[in-house]
Amino acid sequence: MNRQPAFLVRPLSAVALAVSLAACQAEPSSAPQGRAADAGADMGMAVPKRLLQSRAVDRMRLRPDVILSTGQRVSMRRIDDTTWSGTVRVDPGIQLGVEVVWVSEQPRGDLPLARLSRSVPIGPDGAALEVSEAQYDYAIDSDGDGVLNLDELEAGSDPFPEPPATGGGPDVPTPDPDASNPNAPPPDTGLPMPPTTGTQDPDPIDPTPDRPAIDPSDTTTPTPDGDGTGDETGDETGDETGDESGDVTPVDVDVFVPRIAATRSPRIDGRRVTLDADGLLTGEWTGAVQVDSGGRPLGIDALMIDRGAEAPSGTPWRSWGAVHDGEYLYVVVIVEDNGQRQGDSPLFWQDDGIELFLDGDHGRQSTYGDDDDYHLIVPLLEPGTAGEKKRPNANDVAGWLEGPFSSGQGIELDFVTGPGVGPDGLRRPRFERDVYELRIALDSIGVEPGQPFGFELQVNDDDDGGPRDSKWGWAHPPRADTDVDFTFVNPSFMGTLMLD
Predict the structure, then answer these.
(1) Which of 87, 195, 258, 320 has its CA 20 to 30 A from that of 464?
(2) Is there a domain that residue 385 lies in?
(3) Is 473 among the domain residues?
(4) CB-based contacts of 33: which residues, under 8 Å, 6+ apart?
């Protein structure tokens, strides 16, 4: 198998490295320290051969989206119609994950066609990673119809799913019969993971105690037009779902999130999450919603990816609840594990953790692009370790990471996890459950009470090290005969929430 140095990493200074992707042989640079542009000027990343050979792919509409395990996105510039180049600063002495997604810019949005993910150890002299054409993954099926995006583009069919005309979840897709995992997050992006055991003292994130209290006795449930009057005929201020005639298209809300006084807001510390004998949240999470609008428990129980899952869909071992105080949305996730909590992989999503999806304006588009469409990957960290974007925690991990297509901007998310410090296990009571506590500033995602927004939670489970064994979703449809994973490329697969 012919290989060529597709990735070449070169040192620029004691604390900076140029990350470039080369399509041909290149010798290490002898440029002076600090001259990033010069050091990377002769290096580039070539379009995959299969895309170049396809008559349906317009080279001038192709671009590479490059994301590093540090959370950085590499700014790429076009050299010619087949080659791109980019440089980024990273610290030496780390295991650097590089993820590349080749995207075709279509009138209906960005269409991912191929991806490649690799993990590279960065030494003082840089590093090179050789890959072959066969290592590119083309198994991306945005609309879930069983036909890959590239195949649909070549056949002249529509690879984009049609968003639902009204509210509610999307139709269950037909799994891809030709791929064991048609749309899982790119499998090999390196993300350094911390150990998930220990006795570190908690570093809690306290809610602001002096925010104005809100009367908890006010239980008025907002109507879809958000005015609390029960009038759904539309008016000048209007509902975003209204039309010119004043009629309103009903929005199917999956979960109504209750409001509490700010003084009763949960403490985000990864601890003190308790359940009563009926399995209902107690203590600081007593006011959280735990059932959907149809009365069903909020379980993350749809098996999406099965590579050794512990149980089939419907298993009540992963659940969530939520509450808000008008300023923040608080979310708690409880996960029963079999006692094996893994942090061995350099990939966030290949170890134990959760994925959070948000669509602030409930746009329900088939591709990411709005600045309020979020996909965030939250790892299971050591007890008491606080995770915040771009603020390294005690394990030297910069908190959560954006998914490959997440387009949202400016989210304020704080989280703390508690591996094995939650409620007693259902199967083995002595193995306490894992908990994730999250706090999201509502104004940072453009969400207000009385307005619907997209929301989804998914759980990654790794019991034996290496790649994850299973992935579970709340709103996502379960797998049938093959693995399915669509929300990370198609935000319309989120469920719908509304704040009281």
Answers:
(1) 320
(2) yes
(3) yes
(4) 12, 13, 14
